[in-house]
Design brief:
The protein has helices spanning 4-14, 51-61, 70-80, 176-181; strands at 25-36, 39-49, 91-95, 98-100, 106-113, 116-128, 134-140, 147-158, 167-173, 186-193. By secondary structure, the protein is of the alpha+beta class. The protein has one domain (22-193). Strand 5 and strand 6 form a beta hairpin.
């Protein structure tokens, strides 16, 4: 059963957007674009939550050892993650100027490090490399403003297995609110790649 923090978080996400809305959950967002020989395979997403939300999740789902068992991770996924599907997990994808429907995310995991809760998951997003430049823009933001999701430029990377074709990243300016939280914050990132 959902307890206080998770219940409040879910309720807040379901509320209509109002002018006075302000964040109740704070998330540092990390993106890694994963390439293989065929092109872009997907995006690995990591979230690090603030101390209060982390403590609430641990109170609700952890047995007190600050180590999440497979059963505890499954419970967190079912009760404190999959509900975000109705918000596309705050992930907005634009391909060739058009909104791209977010596919089902995969490989969810949850861990705890120094008292902070980490979520990790993958967004399958296959885009084969071609002679024409391919472009994908990713913005991770809760449009209701009940969760503050900050993506720093240094939090965006290309997978370790460097592709054998040119790949570039460009960044859009962050909102004033994100900029006030972090001077390094970006509003969106665009990855471009093509065959030589």
């Amino acid at each position: 059963m959902l307890k206080t923090y998770v219940f409040i978080f879910c309720l807040l996400l379901l509320q209509p957007v109002i002018a006075s809305a302000h964040p109740h959950v704070f998330v540092n967002n990390y993106l890694s674009f994963e390439f293989d020989s065929a092109g872009l395979a997907g995006i690995k997403v990591d979230w690090v939550f603030d101390e209060m939300f982390s403590a609430g999740i641990l109170l609700d789902f952890d047995d007190g050892d600050a180590i999440l068992s497979p059963q505890e991770v499954a419970a967190i996924e079912a009760e404190a993650f999959t509900n975000l599907a109705k918000f596309d997990y705050f992930i907005h994808l634009i391909v060739a100027g058009e909104k791209f429907s977010l596919p089902a995310v995969t490989e969810f995991s949850a861990t705890v490090h120094n008292g902070s809760l980490f979520y990790s998951f993958k967004v399958p997003c296959r885009m084969p490399v071609a002679q024409a430049t391919k472009s994908l823009t990713v913005r991770v933001e809760d449009d209701t403003n009940f969760a503050s999701v900050i993506t720093n430029k240094s939090s965006i990377s290309i997978s370790a297995s460097t592709p054998a074709y040119p790949v570039s990243l460009t960044y859009a300016q962050a909102s004033m609110g994100a900029f006030l939280v972090s001077r390094e914050a970006v509003g969106a990132v665009t990855v471009k790649f093509s065959k030589l």
